[in-house]
Amino acid sequence: MPDYQAPLRDLRFVMNEMLDYPGHYARLPNGEEATPDIVEAILEEGGRFAREVLLPLNQRGDQEGCLLEGGDVKTPQGFKEAYAQYVEGGWPGLSGPVEHGGQGLPASLGLALSEMICASNLAWGMYPGLSHGAADALRHHGSEPQKATYLSKLVEGVWTGTMCLTEPHCGTDLGLIKTRAVPEGDDAYRITGTKIFISAGEHDLAENIVHLVLAKLPDAPEGSRGISLFVVPKFLPDADGNPGERNGVTCGSLEHKMGIHGNATCVMNFDGATGYLVGPPHKGLACMFTMMNEARIGVGIQGLGLMEASYQNSLAYARDRLQMRALSGTRAVDKPADPIIVHPDVRRMLLTQKALAEGGRMLVMYTGQLVDIAGHAADAEERDRAETLLGLLTPIVKAFLTELGFEATNEGLQVFGGHGFIQEWGMEQFVRDARITRLYEGTTGIQALDLLGRKVLMSQGETLKVFTKEIHKFCQANADNEGLKPFIEPLARLNAEWGELTLAVGMKAMNDREEVGAASVDYLLYSGYVTLAYLWARAMARAEQALAEGAGDAAFYRAKRTTAEFYYQRLLPRTRAHAEMIRAGGESLMALDAEDFDLGFRL
Predict the structure, then answer these.
(1) Verdict on whether the full-model pTM lies above 0.90
(2) Which has fewest Cβ within 10 Å: 190, 209, 314, 491?
């Protein structure tokens, strides 16, 4: 069975040393309770829960899967008991508002906990995962009666939430949805339609499930402008707020998936179910974006968690597995062969996972600070800047970290050789589980269009400039630091090129809008590698300072430098290929007629 230890030492470095989380929390109006001692206790207990409670259920859940009987879903053995422990421990309300039963701690603490959950048992983590977003959507857009009915239950974890968006015929194009909402008086609506790919749509973990459903009113305009949002509970709350009559919503079937078998991915049928309008009519997509943006960061964290799990297990295997001798001569003289960690290609695979996981952790916790600031900073200008940066970085977190997660888990499997393909080692499950992260909550292609089209070009590059100016100031401040020159000089060049590439795509798109789609994925990947380069340079600035001061744990800081050098020398050069593909434009992509794609096998 795979093992997992929460990377607490690295989390402490990122949070306390690199990003100054103690100072960050001290400046937040809701951060006074997040003292260093409290934060440390939460991280340690979260790591214990992940390893001792969730990890032993991961393979079992994959092998058992979920069972649908008479419209009810039974989750794998142990999942329900683990969820009860999770609720009893107060974990669902960690960053929830105090007035609704939460602990009121900063949202970024929840992101650190999410990584541990995703690394130890991704399928289980998806059950409570969407409840935070559902609570936020209702908190921002729900009526006061809706908040009174649902928020405390969601925050405390007694009830769970879902997002019911897509349908069999429409995929990402939600403007095509057919689910209808017909008014029936008393502020209620009858919801009728079918939704697919609904994570945790039906299960036995919580006493009620609160579905947030996109549907169209009878007078709805065509397309996405006609979408409204409704809250549709599995059980209609009674006069005391407890689950009452069963609503007209059922699980029609479970999807048979490549991975995340322990999570119930449902086809949900709404047969005249009672629902209530959330927010204004026809503005449902805007309301749902509150939930979707949080979910996108959450999926990026799934990619990060799987990177870390893959790295830890392939590292342990590489230290123990004996095969061949080192090319430079025998290393383990007392053994019949050397451990495979001595071989350069195995080290390449391990260091790739290590550099991407540690860089991804920096990105998530940097983003976590922005979430805290955007939601709670006292200064309006500071909140606006954080919102702008979140808009830019959210598609990068979601798409880039999930692309890297799939790469890292494949490299981890490869370290095991043929054994990686065998179920009991657990590595092939990481690969299967990672694959879906590139698809749900918006594919990599959709996230790339959001980044380049909506966030960058529609703002005429102003959103990007907020971030590139930050990088530029960092490079200027460290230009004379000899120890950082191998990082600062290439980072400064890439930062300038980022703007040049943006301008080039924008100019081409003025004549042909297809150029945005042609460049978008490469643009996102380029952006991701440069963003991680910036964060690795910041990490190096702190590590160099610690070494100069003679701080303890010198081996940790030296390993940081070695990993940063690997990232800059072996991974960051990928930007060259992406830059060339961006500059190539869309001509070769669009030149072939659609009917000629099958010329090689047409009969």
Answers:
(1) yes
(2) 190
